[in-house]
Inverse folding.
């Protein structure tokens, strides 16, 4: 039955389910359609219409004015879409040499066009990675999500310590391109030298070169203490 339902899922429906899953990570409450509309840059009316269609397919539960929740079937499709996306990002960097600012948009296209057979082969070829190039966990074929190590945002890290970059918020391509120019990638070392109290900008050292990050830029980096 699930296989039949998957054949009925369009790209927009997969994106919708994927976004609900991402938003539901931060709450046990139903996700409001207005938040989904904001993230997907569509109207509230279009969001509600899609919710009704997915509810009819038993992919989510929906009550008007109360938000939506994924059903088990909906969660399976969301995780499968996320798995394809993050495996493609990993593949594009490791085999084709794209940088971590380039792969997201490409993976957004490929995630909807790839068979499960090919994804299984790519997963095997990559030796079953647990995290993608941005540090996001890659769901297994069985839908299990690897646990991300406990991280701290660079804006909250302790001055005078050296950290390892464990995860990056990659929603802004301009910032990602800036990190690439600096030679920053996942698991790079970054020493936090000082922080300006009046605006929370930070002074860091990367490859023995000093840089200044605004609070907005620093907030994109999540790190773990090198000595732990």
């Amino acid at each position: 039955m699930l296989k039949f339902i998957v054949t009925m899922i369009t790209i927009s429906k997969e994106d919708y389910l994927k976004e609900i899953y991402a938003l539901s990570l931060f709450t046990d409450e139903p996700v409001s359609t207005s938040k989904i509309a904001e993230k997907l840059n569509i109207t509230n009316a279009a969001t509600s219409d899609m919710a009704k269609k997915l509810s009819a397919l038993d992919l989510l539960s929906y009550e008007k004015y109360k938000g939506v929740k994924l059903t088990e079937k909906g969660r399976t499709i969301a995780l499968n879409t996320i798995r394809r996306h993050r495996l493609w990002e990993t593949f594009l960097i490791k085999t084709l040499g794209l940088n971590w600012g380039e792969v997201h948009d490409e993976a957004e296209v490929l995630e909807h066009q790839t068979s499960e057979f090919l994804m299984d082969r790519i997963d095997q070829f990559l030796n079953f990675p647990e995290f993608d190039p941005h540090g996001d966990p890659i769901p297994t074929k069985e839908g299990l999500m690897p646990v991300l190590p406990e991280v701290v945002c660079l804006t909250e890290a302790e001055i005078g310590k050296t950290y390892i970059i464990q995860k990056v918020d990659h929603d802004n391509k301009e910032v990602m391109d800036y990190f690439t120019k600096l030679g920053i990638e996942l698991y790079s070392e970054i020493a936090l030298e000082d922080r300006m109290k009046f605006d929370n900008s930070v002074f860091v050292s990367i490859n023995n070169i000093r840089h200044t990050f605004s609070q907005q830029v620093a907030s994109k980096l999540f790190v773990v203490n090198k000595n732990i």
Notes: Residues 37 and 95 are 35 Å apart (CA to CA). The chain has a mean pLDDT of 90. Strands lie at 60-63, 67-70, 152-153, 162-168, 189-195, 202-206, 209-213, 221-225.
